[in-house]
Structures are given as structure tokens and as C-alpha cells.
TrEMBL record, chain A:
Matches recorded under SUPFAM superfamilies: NagB/RpiA/CoA transferase-like (SSF100950)
Name of the protein in question: Lactate utilization protein C
Pfam families (alphabetical): LUD_dom
Gene3D superfamilies for this protein: NagB/RpiA/CoA transferase-like (3.40.50.10420)
Gene: lutC
Species, as recorded: Polystyrenella longa
Automatic annotation (TrEMBL), chain B:
GO biological process, one term: lactate metabolic process
Residues in 4Fe-4S ferredoxin-type domain copies: 292-322, 342-370
An example molecular function term from Gene Ontology annotations: 4 iron, 4 sulfur cluster binding
UniProt keywords, alphabetically: 4Fe-4S, Electron transport, Iron, Iron-sulfur, Metal-binding, Repeat, Transport
Species assigned in the record: Polystyrenella longa
InterPro entries: 4Fe4S_Fe-S-bd, 4Fe4S_Fe_S_CS, FTHF_cligase-like_sf, Helical_ferredxn, LUD_dom, LutB/LldF, LutB_C, NagB/RpiA_transferase-like
Keyword Metal-binding recorded: yes
Record keyword Transcription present: no
Gene3D superfamilies, alphabetized: Alpha-helical ferredoxin (1.10.1060.10), NagB/RpiA/CoA transferase-like (3.40.50.10420)
Name recorded for this polypeptide: Lactate utilization protein B
Length: 214, 454
């Protein structure tokens, strides 16, 4: 007998009392001002966020970033960001994700943000190498200001994980909440373990077309 | 095999260190309290999460098959392993088929439980644990002492020594920021050089065939985004029915574990990366037996947050290694005997039955009740040591003879008052080793009762 059958048989030989699935539609936490809550949580987990008027403002703000102008390689999936051609890395031209090892900044779109925990949902749907999210020294995420949800119960339906589209083709999605961190040495919090040393989030008020993203 | 008490002796011998350990974990427990109190529906979350787990376990075979079907649709190869040895063989053979020399692993208690590393190393592979705490204990050649904070028992000066020896950091350096940066550089080299990435699984989703892995460091992500081969090792109890239920567990897990609102990276893998390969190994290793036990079934609900250890007064003061079990603390003291009652027979007796673990458990496992049940079970199975069974037999005989009991009490009351200290606190009096006996009263309860009746 295969191990598969052995395990299933071993499970089925036990009579386990039935237990109904609970109702997931309950009064989950809501916030008076989800944007403010999101920004508070993001800063609590070591990230930095702000509301800006439009994509042009993102560009201006990035130039105020201490490391930004020193960066040698920037991979931006957000268009029109005023990045000099010798710094811009075209993700689609890269075959092997190992070649992303020296990326200083990744500037990527996020689908939506969650107020209760400062998390942002990003996927590999329009991103050739998901490694970009984790290998870049600094990560910047741009989210539409109106795409802020209250809690995780609103978030999961928005991920589309349960839809045909997600299940037909392999897909990857991740909630990112703050920069990479660890507290494994005497519980001292250190930012910048393996992934991003910093996470900056822009909540853009002016509506923009997601399809513009490469 | 030495029992928990003997092993804990070694840990508490260094009182300063034992107190430091206690405080470190209490700090984490405190953070958990603060953040759980900030969620008004915390108890509803726990109750709902508990019900979902009970439901899933009651339909486990059906959900496993659903999970397998959906994972296959995504291009994942699904393997089944009845026990640890089979799991190790499967992982090794996948790696060998791909000529893998170097593997990066993100923290996985299941692969610890199966002792995967030595198995792969014996076959000539290099396995690097990439969670910082895991890497520290790996370099020290010891097992993790906590499931979420693997190096919680190690001081920063000791990390400095290990890193000086292995990573070439400055001698005497102990700054966590400096040491973490050194580990970052060292592990990046390993991520870039790896041929395959192995991860554990926090949650498997039956309706999609996807898996969720939670880390703060991003090690599971870097470890799987670079190489083309991803092997995920998953205990069969990690299943949940659908993504909607993830909302419960992603809210509970990090808050209970470290007092964070959510882990930094909560990654949802649905199939291999483009051009890559993904394998999921479903592991039983005793879990289906626990499923059959009305007493211990609920222990399968565990989401491995570690909250029960952080709050446990015994764990905090005796250190994780004294449990000699991959999962230590209260939940480990239930799972350990479930896997091997003889080997782990002393663990349920470490418990003080204070019930704090049950209070903090995010999925409402009745931990201290199960620990009490295990004590009975261990007696029934004849696994109690003579030092515990013999006095119980003697006392049983005494309790059956009221005259003898009264006489014994009289003698004891007198003796305890008259005998010199060294005669009372002898090696036979284990209880009196760390505490004084109460002062013996002049009269027994029986005498007092008789007097009052007059």
C-alpha cells in the first residue's frame, strides 16, 4: 500500500466527532480612519508611509531619501519616476533572478493595504521575478490611497486566491508589513535581516491606471 | 534517558542565567498581552479559529485529497510520508535527482522533528539554516530551544564568539546590529549559491492547493525565489479549508508569538516559480494516531506560535533543552509523549498545572487538561518510575487503614518537631530539597473535630 493510502486509511479508521465550520461573517474590527491606522501600524513595524497627491510627488519624495541618489541600480515598475537611464534596471530584460543581487531600490506597485497590521499585498502577476521584493536593499511600494482595507477578513477576498484565475496558473502573493527584521540575538530588534533594509510606502491620492505598471 | 527534572537541574544551577532566560520570555509574553488586548474581538477570533481547526481535523482525509488535487493543478508534485525516515528519503531523492549540492532551509520544526539535516549531510550535501536564530544554533551544533525564538537561550557575547569563529567577525564583538549585519552578508552568499530551497509550511489551503509561510526575515522568500527547486515539508495537520480562514490565523499567529500585528512576510505559494519546480511533502509521523484520541486530538490544532512556552513558568525557568523534544514547553509536553510515551514520560510531570498556557493559546487547546490526562495515562501504561509508584502504593495502603493513618500522623507530627534538620532533609525527601516543610501542628484535624463536637 502506498504511503498516501496508508495515511488516508489511518485517518479514516478513526471516528472523529463532527464539528461545523463557523460563520466567518462576523463583526470584525473597523477603524474611523483606516489611512491613519495603516500609517501608525506601518511605522510601528519599522516602515515609513505617507499620503501623496500623485505619482510625480512620489518621484520628488524619493529624491529626498538619503540613499536614493547614491543608488547605482534601481528597478522601478512604476512609470514616470525620473530615474536616470544608467541606473534603471529593466526587470523584463533579466533572465536569471541572481542578477538582481545588486539592486539598491525596488519600486513596486501594491494592490491594497490593510489598516489593522500595516501589511500590503503584492503579487508576481506583473512582476517577472518575485525575488525583486526580497533581494533589493530598499523597497518602495506605491498603493492607491483608496485601496486601504480595515482588516484581514476584508483582505483575503481581495487577494483573489480563491478565484479560478489564481488557481489555473502558478502564482505568488505576499503580505509585506515593514522591512525585513529579526530579534534573534537577545531579543534586540534589528532591521535588515535578509530582505529590505527599509520599506517606504506611498499612498497615492490621484487615481492611476494599474495597467501602466510594467 | 534523563528526565526533565534532571536536565532542568543543569539549567537552574546557573541562577543568574535562569533568571535572565525567564525575563527574556516574560518580555515576549508581555508584548503578546499588549497586542492581543488591542483587538476587541480577540476571544471571538480564538473561538472561531479553534472551531475551524476542529472541523478540518474531523474531515482531514477529505481536505487532504482536495489539497492534493488542487496543488497538482498548480503544477506541484505532492508526496506522502508516513514517518520521519520516509520524509527524509523523499527529500533526499528529490535533491539527488536535481544534483543539488547546496540547500538553504528556512525554519521548519517538521524537518527538525524528522532530523533532516544530518540525513542530507550524510549524503554529502551542505544544508544552511537561514533563520538567524536557527543559524546560530546550527553553528553551535545544538538543537533550537524554542520553536519561534530558536536561540533565546544564547547570550549575545556567545553569538559573538560563534560568529568570530565561523564568520570572521571581530573578537569580542557582541552588538546585535553588527552581528546581524555579518549574518546578512554570510547568508546572502548562501542564498545566491543555493541549488534548492526547503521551507516548512505554516498553513496549507485545501481549496487552492497553496501554502503559506510566515517569516520576519524574508528567508523563506529569498531561499525559494532564487533557486529553481522548492521543497515544502508540511505536517498533515497544517491544513485549513479555504483562504478566508487564513484571515483568522494570520491575525492570531504573530500576535501570539511575538506581539507583532502580523509577520513581516506572509507568503502565499501557489505552484512553482516560472521555469522552476515545487514539491510538497505531506508528513504523518504519528499525527493520524493523535487524531484517533479523544483526549489529545485538540493538540493537532496547534499553529506553533510558542505563546504557551513564553507564558509557562516551568519552561521559562528550565530552558527549552531540558525538554529534549523538538517542540518544548506545554504543547511539546503533550506532543512528545504522543510520539513516544516512554521516552518523554517525565514531561507532563514538569507542569505546575497553573493553566496559563490554556489561557493564552490562540486556538484554545486545553493544554493543562491534556497534561493532567497524560499523567494518568503514563501511570496506566506503567511508565512511572519506582520513586513515584512506590510511595503511592504505600500511601494507598495507609489510607485504607484509619488506625494506621492516625498513628502515622501522630508519629510524624512529633518527629517533625523533635528531629534535627539533617534527619528530615535527607535524600529521600525530594520535596524538601528546595523548600521547607510546613511546621507540624500539635493536633490533628481529627482531634480538633472531636473537641468541637463535645
Amino acid at each position: 500500500m502506498s504511503s498516501r493510502d496508508k495515511i488516508l486509511k489511518s485517518i479514516n479508521r478513526h471516528l472523529v466527532p463532527a464539528a461545523p465550520l463557523p460563520d466567518m461573517d462576523q463583526a470584525w474590527i473597523q477603524f474611523d480612519n483606516p489611512t491613519e491606522q495603516f500609517l501608525t501600524m506601518l511605522s510601528a513595524v519599522g516602515g515609513r508611509g505617507e499620503v501623496v497627491a500623485n505619482l510625480q510627488a512620489v518621484s520628488a519624495k524619493l529624491h529626498e531619501e538619503p540613499f536614493y541618489d547614491d543608488a547605482k541600480q534601481i528597478c522601478s515598475l512604476v512609470p514616470n519616476l525620473d530615474i536616470s537611464a544608467d541606473k534603471q534596471v529593466d526587470l523584463n530584460a533579466i533572465e536569471d533572478p541572481h542578477d538582481l543581487a545588486d539592486i539598491d531600490f525596488a519600486i513596486v506597485p501594491g494592490e491594497f493595504a490593510v489598516a489593522e497590521n500595516g501589511a500590503i499585498w503584492v503579487t508576481d502577476a506583473q512582476v517577472k521575478h518575485k525575488a525583486l521584493y526580497f533581494i533589493a536593499q530598499h523597497v518602495v511600494i506605491v498603493v492607491h490611497a483608496s485601496d486601504i482595507l480595515h482588516n484581514m477578513h476584508e483582505a483575503y477576498p481581495r487577494t483573489g486566491l480563491n478565484t479560478e484565475a489564481f488557481q489555473q496558473t502558478p502564482h505568488f502573493g505576499v503580505f509585506i508589513s515593514g522591512p525585513s527584521k529579526t530579534a534573534d540575538i537577545e531579543q534586540s530588534l534589528v532591521i535588515g535581516a535578509h530582505g529590505a533594509r527599509s520599506l517606504r510606502v506611498f499612498l497615492v491620492e490621484e487615481s492611476f491606471d494599474r495597467a501602466q505598471f510594467k | 534517558m534523563a528526565g526533565h527534572a534532571q536536565l532542568a537541574d543543569k539549567f537552574v544551577a546557573n541562577e543568574e542565567r535562569a533568571q535572565w532566560h525567564d525575563k527574556s520570555l516574560w518580555f515576549v509574553r508581555h508584548k503578546r498581552d499588549n497586542i492581543s488586548h488591542s483587538i476587541p474581538e480577540w476571544e471571538t477570533l480564538r473561538e472561531t479559529a479553534s472551531q475551524v481547526k476542529l472541523h478540518t481535523v474531523a474531515h482531514l482525509a477529505q481536505y487532504l485529497e482536495e489539497f492534493e488535487t488542487n496543488a497538482k493543478k498548480l503544477g506541484v508534485t505532492v508526496h506522502w510520508a508516513s514517518n520521519a525516515a520516509e520524509h527524509n528519503e523523499i527529500v533526499l531523492s528529490i535533491l539527488q535527482e536535481h544534483n543539488v549540492k547546496r540547500v538553504v532551509k528556512s525554519k521548519s520544526m517538521l524537518t527538525e522533528e524528522c532530523h533532516l539535516n544530518p540525513h542530507l549531510e550524510a549524503a554529502g550535501m551542505e544544508v544552511v539554516d537561514t533563520d538567524l536564530g536557527e543559524r546560530i544554533v546550527q553553528l553551535r551544533k545544538e538543537p533550537p530551544s524554542h520553536i519561534v525564538l530558536p536561540a533565546i537561550h544564547i547570550k549575545k557575547e556567545e553569538v559573538g564568539e560563534v560568529f568570530h569563529e565561523h564568520l570572521g567577525t571581530e573578537a569580542g564583538a557582541s552588538d546585535p546590529g553588527y552581528l546581524t549585519e555579518a549574518a546578512r552578508q554570510h547568508l546572502r552568499e548562501n542564498f545566491l549559491a543555493a541549488d534548492a530551497g526547503i521551507t516548512g509550511v505554516n498553513f496549507g489551503i485545501a481549496s487552492t492547493g497553496g501554502i503559506v509561510v510566515c517569516t520576519n526575515e524574508g528567508n523563506a522568500d529569498l531561499g525559494t525565489a532564487l533557486p529553481n527547486l522548492h521543497i515544502a515539508c508540511m505536517g498533515i495537520e497544517k491544513l485549513i479549508p479555504s483562504p478566508d480562514h487564513l484571515s483568522l490565523y494570520t491575525r492570531l499567529l504573530a500576535r501570539s508569538a511575538t506581539g507583532q500585528p502580523i509577520t513581516t512576510y506572509t507568503s502565499h505559494f501557489h505552484g512553482p516559480k516560472p521555469g522552476g519546480e515545487m514539491h510538497i511533502v505531506l508528513v504523518d509521523n504519528g499525527r493520524s494516531d493523535i487524531l484517533g484520541s479523544d483526549d489529545f486530538r485538540r493538540s493537532l490544532s496547534c499553529i506553533r506560535c510558542g505563546a504557551c512556552m513564553n507564558t509557562c513558568p516551568v519552561y521559562r525557568r528550565s530552558g527549552g533543552h531540558s525538554y529534549q523534544s523538538t517542540v518544548p514547553g506545554p504543547i511539546g509536553s503533550i506532543l512528545g509523549p504522543s510520539q513516544n510515551a516512554k521516552e518523554h514520560s517525565s514531561l507532563p510531570f514538569a507542569c505546575s498545572l497553573c493553566g496559563s498556557c490554556t489561557d493564552v493559546c490562540p486556538v484554545k487547546i486545553d493544554l493543562h487538561h491534556q497534561l493532567l490526562t497524560w499523567r494518568k495515562e503514563i501511570y496506566v501504561r506503567g511508565l512511572l518510575p519506582f520513586s513515584k509508584t512506590f510511595p503511592m502504593k504505600v500511601m494507598s495502603k495507609v489510607f485504607q487503614r484509619p488506625g494506621l493513618y492516625a498513628f502515622g500522623g501522630k508519629v510524624a507530627r512529633k518527629a517533625l518537631r523533635l528531629m534535627p534538620r539533617w534527619m528530615i532533609y535527607n535524600p529521600l525527601n525530594g520535596w524538601g530539597r528546595q523548600r521547607d516543610l510546613p511546621e507540624a501542628p500539635k493536633e490533628s484535624f481529627r482531634d480538633l473535630y472531636k473537641k468541637r463536637k463535645k
